[in-house]
Amino acid sequence: MIIPVRCFSCGKVIGNKWEQFLALVKADKTEREALDELGLKRYCCRRMVLTHVDLIEKLLQYVAYCVLFLQPTTQ
Asked: Which structural domains are found in the chain, ordered by start?
């Protein structure tokens, strides 16, 4: 799924920081440094970003399988 727009605990907007977080981690920064740079100081907001699982990206890996093997055959 997509990252929630707001932190569930405090209500701070965090949805706009996900792509920046991924870019910083990919640029060889630690998660701690990336979260500090994004201004996420509260542990509830940090939890929201650190524990998010991007299910859409995982599910897109299986789209090719579904298209190739699960189409009904026409006879």
From this structure: 15-69 (1.10.10.60)
